[in-house]
Acyl carrier protein (Streptomyces milbemycinicus), 81 residues
Amino acid sequence: MSDDEREAKVREIVANVVELDESSLTRTGLLVEEHGADSLDAIEILTHLETTFSVEIDPKAASRMVNIDAILEILDEYGAK
C-alpha cells in the first residue's frame, strides 16, 4: 500500500468513527479540539487501524493519536503495511 493509499484509509477510518466528512480532515487538525473526538473514539480508531493494517498497537498509543499525522507516525512505529 502506498503512503497516499494508507493516508486515505486512515482518513476514511477517522471520518467514519468521528462522523465527519473526510474533506474536513487535515493532516494537522486536532481530532479532539477541532472535531470533537473523545477517548472512546480513539479506541475505536485504534481497533479499526489494527484490523485494516494487520498490526497490533499498544492501547497507550491511543492518547497520542491527536491528528492524521500522528496516526500515520504510530502506524510507521508499529510496522503497519
Summary: The chain has a mean pLDDT of 94. Helices lie at 3-18, 39-53, 68-77. Residues 43 and 59 are 7 Å apart (CA to CA).
